[in-house]
Amino acid sequence: MDDSLTVRMDLFQAFRGAGYEVLLAASIAEARRLAFEGSVELVVLDVMLPDGDGIDLLSELKQEAATAHVPVILLSSEDEIRHRISGFERGADEYLGKPYSTERVLRRARELLGERAPPRLVPTILVIDDSPTFAHALTAALEASGYRVEIAPTGELGLTRALELRPDAVIVDGVLPRMDGAAVVRALRLDPATEHVPCLFLTASGGGATEVTALEAGADAFARKEQGTELILERLAALLRVAEGSRRAMSTRSGGPRRILLLTESNTLTEWITRLLREDGHDVLRAQSEDEAFELLTLQAPDCMLLEPLPEAGAASRLCRRLRALPLLSGTPIVVLSSGGDGMKQVIDAGADDWVPREADKPGGGPLSQSD
Fold first, then answer.
1. What is the fold, at CATH topology level, of the domain defined by 259-357?
2. Residue 49 half-sphere exposure, CB side, CA atoms within 13 Å?
3. Which of 79, 157, 209, 227 is most deeply packed, by most CB within 10 A?
4. By C-alpha distance, which of 57, 59, 35 is closest to 46?
5. Which residue, among 176, 78, 87, has the nearest Cα to 127 in the 3D structure?
6. What are 343-359's pLDDT values in tens digits?
7. CATH domain 124-252 topology
8. Matching CATH number, 5-112, of 3.40.50.2300, 1.20.1250.20, 3.30.360.10, 3.40.50.2000
């Protein structure tokens, strides 16, 4: 439920690609009708809609017996902590800031629905090839090996199907009408939704130059058609093993975009840090005061905290000890940006994980002075 067509289509593709049935609404009236007339299991709701307030609709949903149990994820471009607090007080199960990460939205949706990421027991392979004879033979070999296969006869249609299907891998012929295979691979690599999908590039005999072009475009491997489907299957299986290993490593290492609580005194510094973090896909919570930060912490726990306490002696240490007294923050990293008062040893002893002097240089600029 979002008035932005871009947001609606982005989330539609993400949820559909993950195997969910999706209903779209661009207004409060539409959203109310779908929620109360249908049997929805999860609502993703924008706070600001053209004909009303999403928070008010949230209250309606939570007051009706038929929808009171339905998890609600709020999306909002509002930065102020009070908007998040209001959303949680009205019954929201999650509140994510814009720009959002589709990865985080999907992960929270699965958690709220009591699901783990649904394993793809049957990997989906998208074959982009304009030869019906070869495509049919390759499809038969893939299906016999346990894959689900979708075919696209042109590069343009292949890109469309890739966005719709979010396949586990793409097999693309180097020679296609209008848009060749290398152009298809480049387009896949430029789209965040498909940039990590393994691509196996097919060439004809004597296609050395084409193979180099394919690898430069971003293909993960290549195979020559005349070498037969058995080699293609071997290359594909290897690509899928590597991709699965990379996904597991990334999940273990980073867990995806993070929620970061930011408490700083300088508005300009806050804007600068917020911009950098959001460019990396993180959800940034900006508190205007310690009291506001602690009020939010009773409702939503961050993955990391970046603090700029008052400059007087003891302020940073006092704040860190106060935060560490909260059980939900026992393992949450705390980084203190200090302009004086407490030194690094005092702050670390009080519970901070790192201490950055206020005079540290920011990338591409001067020191982090109060004028920043």
1. Rossmann fold (3.40.50)
2. 26
3. 79
4. 57
5. 176
6. 778 888 888 888 877 65
7. Rossmann fold (3.40.50)
8. 3.40.50.2300
**What is the tens place of the pLDDT at every residue in 172-210?**
999 999 999 999 999 999 988 888 899 999 987 665 557
Q: Which amino acid type is present at position 166? A: R
Q: Which residues pair with 44 in a beta bridge?
A: 73
Sheet of strand 169-173, all strands in order from the earlier edge strand to the far edge: 148-152, 124-128, 169-173, 199-203, 221-224
Written as six digits, the tokens of 304 are 């990391």
Residue 134 confidence (pLDDT) above 90: yes
